[in-house]
Amino acid sequence: MAQTLARRAEVSRFGSMTLSTLTSSEAAARSALLEVQRYDIDVDMTGLLEGELWTSVSTITFTCSEPGATTFVDVAMDVHAATLNGEPVDVSAAADGRLPLPALAADNVLVVEASTANTASGEGILRTVDPTDKLVYVWTSLEPDEARRIWACFDQPDLKAPHRFVVTAPSSWVVTSNGAPESVIDADPDVAADAKVWTYPDTPRLSTYVVVVNAGPFHEVRRQHDGYDLGFYCRQSLVPILERDLEELVTLTRQGLAFFGERFAFPFPQARYDQVFVPNLGGAMENWGCVTYGDGQLFRTPPTHAQRAVRGEFIFHEMAHMWFGDLVTMQWWDDLWLNEAFASWAANWGMAGASEFTEQWATFLAVSKRTAYEMDMSPARHPIRSAVPDVSSAMSNFDAITYVKGQSVLHQLVAYIGEDAFVAGLRDYFSRYAYTNTTLDDLMDCYSRASGRDLSSWTKAWLDEAGTDVVSLVDDELVVETTDDQDPRPHRLDIAVFDATGDDLVAVGRSSHEVTGTRTPVDLPAGDLRLVNAGDLTFAAVKPDPTSLRLMLERVQQLDAPLDRALVAATAGQLLLLGDVAPRDVSAALTRALSTETSVSLIEPFLGQALQVADRWAPASESPGLLGALADAASGLVGLPDARQAALRTLAASASTDAHWAVLEEAAAQATDLDLAWRMAVRRSELGDYDADRVARLLESDPDPDAGMRRLAVLAAHPSVEAKEEVWRAFFVDYAVPASRETLVLGSTFWRPGQAELLAPFTHRYLEELHSLKGGLLNQGLTVRAMYPLGAGDASFLAAAQAAAEDPTLFAYARNQLRANSFVLGRILQARQL
């Protein structure tokens, strides 16, 4: 049946252009109509050395199952010319990111010549000038549908095809793409002066969003290991940082490739594997064989254990995407979790099993899992898997439920069917579906075959229903409370019992239970402290009995297993959200735990959680005292080599006495870097002591190309309208804040809870700014999260934010983040009354 795919009126609000957003029905119709044989894409980057012009010629070879039908190609650029099967196409009809095509033949060749000067906003592409040496770097990042911004394509995940790139770039630049170049030759000087042409072989069949072209005068290091050609790239100003951490990066990469290749029974199928650290990328992107990371992962100061673990998780996560997402790709964005949750789960699984970070599951519980509980308990909750009507709607699902709850649910599935069956299911999945697209049913069928269990009810309960179960142990029964009167989910969990009659906690038993229904009887040995969900095998909030709650908070430091201590801290965080514990009690427990904590995997997470509770959750009358106690505990950790750096950073954020400052001053005098001095300047500024000369000296002596952001952090902390305004302009007017994890730190530094009165007008301005954000998905998302006034907003702002979350003129991601953060802010305001 011949048909024309209708264009939907709803448009994407990501970015400065008005673009149609592809609907699921349009994608399904186009997928049924077309099969793409290949993309041959010529890219000219010579216009980016001194200017902002990117040009491309995209040749698409494809078939049509219904000759005579019409469709459109995605191209959000200035289209100069196009031909279909040698005949001109009317490019004046291009609008809203689409070029209508005339009647198709059975076999077709479409050629589209286009260009864009939108290379400074981070929408699919970003051109960056390093402030220290004025060198230019360019990266592309195409998820979810940004490929259309830099070349013509059928921009949907299930129209996979090989891509072949020919890139013309300035002679001084290095180009990276999805594999090794076939050739690099001088360009014809009549075509492009002082340029080289980089020609790349065909990629495997890939979705349009996981191909890449990066370029610039990158520093390149290559290592040959285990049959792989490993590449590492960074901008020239960060060469010493990359070289400092190179061996660790190489080791993690080797470990990950070996572990995943063996466990999946499917080694990564090409020799070349590059990792490119680029400026101003808010996260990382899993491009096939050429992962890009924001170069904030090249920590300017020698990283702490926790920072190294975070970077390791990034490396393993993006590598796991080579299988989950690149090799096998979801058919449509409603199964985004097939990519992201699996990559997140596999990263922690791989790190715990193959790297030095053997306590990664404890770190995950202590650091990350809280974010999923916050969102899943809030009005922003949504099923892990749900219908996604269009690409724009899909963007709201790039959140803690998809990533963090998703991987927690997979961790539960491992416990539910056993790791051997889980791995066997994965091997079956990759063997059956390599280089194709799948749905949830395809994966669950593999698990059912491997485990011999019918997983249909498990799938529905865990993936198709939103909300967090709350599990309590009452009179030797596990009692499950659900969200919205749902049926309880099936849980496989452990309970650990301890005797507390002596000076130490003594383990008396640990048992496993499958929980079904509202009440499940359990047979436990006698004991005083009963830890429900020991080992953190399931995703559920836990309400301990009163005796267990008291004992876990008072004696957390006596639990032998790091995962048990992490569970106490996590349970305390859940109880804050449930309104069942006061911030002062949680802060005291964490400070007590830190007095004897020896696990390097937990010290920094506990310091961070304790600081957040004392600073953000506690009422103004109690916060200084709790911060002082935390600063005392941090001072006590400074003498431990593995804890020193993290302890000094926490002390710098909470110092309030001469003794605290004396410890910091002594450490700063011994330090070989400027990080601690900057942190001390931030704290002094927060306390009203802003010394412009001191900041100027720090800035002059700091070689970091992004050192200007450290100056902004000092300003952000200062209790003055003038300082706040300058930081505000950097975020929302000049867009001068590089996207990285430090963006979140800068936001929390701006929103000091003790400056609530000063900040009140800014809280409402934040809601106004959400209507006009610029940049790509990753960068916009960072700004939305970083600049929500969590801890600084009052009841008036909370009401306004809750109203804004229902404003249809805001893009879906922002509305969802408003719902989630407003839930947490509401619980903070309530907790301050306890």
Automatic annotation (TrEMBL):
Listed cofactors: Zn(2+)
Gene3D superfamilies xrefs: Neutral Protease Domain 2 (1.10.390.10), tricorn interacting facor f3 domain (2.60.40.1730)
Key word Transcription regulation present: no
Keywords: Aminopeptidase, Hydrolase, Metal-binding, Metalloprotease, Protease, Zinc
Record keyword Hydrolase present: yes
Residue ranges of every copy of the Peptidase M1 membrane alanine aminopeptidase domain listed in the record: 253-462
Biological process, per Gene Ontology: peptide catabolic process; proteolysis
Catalysis performed (reactions): Release of an N-terminal amino acid, Xaa-|-Yaa- from a peptide, amide or arylamide. Xaa is preferably Ala, but may be most amino acids including Pro (slow action). When a terminal hydrophobic residue is followed by a prolyl residue, the two may be released as an intact Xaa-Pro dipeptide
UniProt cross-references to PANTHER family, sorted A to Z: PROTEASE M1 ZINC METALLOPROTEASE, PUROMYCIN-SENSITIVE AMINOPEPTIDASE-RELATED
Name under which the protein is recorded: Aminopeptidase N
Gene: pepN
